[in-house]
Amino acid sequence: MNGHAALPPQGRPREEVLQALRAFAEGDPDYKSNRLWSLVYWLDDAHDEFLGQAWQSFQSANGLNPTAFQSLKRMETEIISVLAGLLHGPPETCGVVTSGGTESCLLAVKTYRDMALAQRGVKKPEMVLPVTAHVAWFKAAEYFGVRPRLLPLDASLRADVAQLPGLVNRQTVLVLGSAPEYPHGTIDPIEAMGAIAAARGVPMHVDACVGGFILPFMEMNGRALPAWDYRVPGVTSISADIHKYGFAAKGASTITYRSLELLRHQMFVYQDWPGGVFASPALLGTRPGGAYAAAWAAMQHFGEAGYRELAARTMQAFGAMRDGIAAIPELQVLGDPSGPLLAYGARDRAVNIFAVGDQLDAKGWTVNRLQQPDGLHAMVTAAHDGVVGAYLHDLREAVAVVKADPSLARSGSAATYGMMSHVPLRGMVKDKVLDLFLQMYRAGGQKLDLHAAPPAAGVVDAVAQKVAGWYVAWKQRRG
Ligand SMILES: *Cc1c(COP(=O)(O)O)cnc(C)c1O
């Protein structure tokens, strides 16, 4: 109808539908062989099945109204309590289970914006974000109208705490630190930042979305880390995802606060709705019961010993990756990652790191690209333990191939990534990326593939050429 897809006139048998779904997955990244270094935290089929069973047993349950499904409220309370303990929170530490890290980060911004308005009358709110803050914080800035003030990095790619005092003012509603930050796996100087925030009377949130379910266990295993959680007095809230290193099913994160006085500003109550008096602790309306059940199940199943063992295996894989990359003369690890994430770039200017990425892709690996500085990324998990050797082998080959053929930097996705990261007119890049996304999301939206497969590559190339053309024209105009 009107060119749109139609429902099958008669429904299809369940088995046939499931078969079709399985076929859809064929072109997806091959995470089960651990060749993917982002997006999926995978252990094995047995764990996957276990999560599925836990999810299934509560998939119809709804956390929207925490007074209705007592089971879900009980799971939420237990999850938050365990986490408060792991994060060394005081006895009053409280919080909410959310659908993911982004929801947790959005909520922190909403909470502190509203708190600053209520307590200090702040009408033009600002927040201090290290430039490596997760992109969810920039999303929150746009959604909630809180202006980000960017805290630059020091030489080791840590947030430069010396510049923090100059960025805090009367409009500041929160200071953010990450443990660790996503791009390079570096833990920000939380202790020093917390002291400055506390002295200025500004709340400090620690984004431990990726670190929250591994740093505590790394410490229990004897690894010395700089203080990063509620042990730092200035830290007022922490986000920690269960669906990352907690190995829950997707859709489970947490936000905790040092006290209920903070959390109260997260709550939404509307007493005059014809549908009934309404109260909600987080962003979502319907909150999927399955996500709670799978998260609770994962935590109970692993227990402290299980998570410690996963952390140990992860850090073994991480150490092998870091040392293996550092031993390749043309490459260097970026910053000083604490694990479990790391990034690396080219030390040798004859090697284009994005072209190295293309070579890795061609060998069946899936790696993320970074910019400012250019790099490749690896989110290392316990399951990568078995593939680090193969990865490093392919990486060495990839570097040799790229070094021998510099033209590779101008082809494949390397050209696109290079262009996207280096064109100085960032607003133009933003517009072009928006166009590409709109192409994907228009009616009957097409698939976007940054690699060779037509027709999308044609789109990307055309954009890249256009951007390059504008850049040249702009340079000429400037003489
Ligand atoms: C993953 C991540 C987020 C966002 O979490 P999602 O679950 O992807 O929404 C936020 N902050 C950090 C540091 C992260 O690593």
UniProtKB/TrEMBL annotation:
<dbReference type="InterPro" id="IPR015422">
    <property type="entry name" value="PyrdxlP-dep_Trfase_small"/>
</dbReference>
<dbReference type="GO" id="GO:0030149">
    <property type="term" value="P:sphingolipid catabolic process"/>
</dbReference>
<dbReference type="GO" id="GO:0019752">
    <property type="term" value="P:carboxylic acid metabolic process"/>
</dbReference>
<comment type="pathway">
    <text>Lipid metabolism; sphingolipid metabolism.</text>
</comment>
<dbReference type="InterPro" id="IPR050477">
    <property type="entry name" value="GrpII_AminoAcid_Decarb"/>
</dbReference>
<keyword id="KW-0663">Pyridoxal phosphate</keyword>
<comment type="similarity">
    <text>Belongs to the group II decarboxylase family. Sphingosine-1-phosphate lyase subfamily.</text>
</comment>
<keyword id="KW-0443">Lipid metabolism</keyword>
<protein>
    <submittedName>
        <fullName>Aspartate aminotransferase family protein</fullName>
    </submittedName>
</protein>
<keyword id="KW-0472">Membrane</keyword>
<keyword id="KW-0032">Aminotransferase</keyword>
<dbReference type="Pfam" id="PF00282">
    <property type="entry name" value="Pyridoxal_deC"/>
</dbReference>
<keyword id="KW-0812">Transmembrane</keyword>
<keyword id="KW-0456">Lyase</keyword>
<dbReference type="InterPro" id="IPR015421">
    <property type="entry name" value="PyrdxlP-dep_Trfase_major"/>
</dbReference>
<comment type="pathway">
    <text>Sphingolipid metabolism.</text>
</comment>
<dbReference type="GO" id="GO:0030170">
    <property type="term" value="F:pyridoxal phosphate binding"/>
</dbReference>
<dbReference type="InterPro" id="IPR015424">
    <property type="entry name" value="PyrdxlP-dep_Trfase"/>
</dbReference>
<dbReference type="GO" id="GO:0016020">
    <property type="term" value="C:membrane"/>
</dbReference>
<keyword id="KW-1133">Transmembrane helix</keyword>
<dbReference type="InterPro" id="IPR002129">
    <property type="entry name" value="PyrdxlP-dep_de-COase"/>
</dbReference>
<keyword id="KW-0746">Sphingolipid metabolism</keyword>
<keyword id="KW-0256">Endoplasmic reticulum</keyword>
<keyword id="KW-0808">Transferase</keyword>
<dbReference type="GO" id="GO:0008483">
    <property type="term" value="F:transaminase activity"/>
</dbReference>
<feature type="modified residue" description="N6-(pyridoxal phosphate)lysine">
    <location>
        <position position="244"/>
    </location>
</feature>
<dbReference type="GO" id="GO:0008117">
    <property type="term" value="F:sphinganine-1-phosphate aldolase activity"/>
</dbReference>
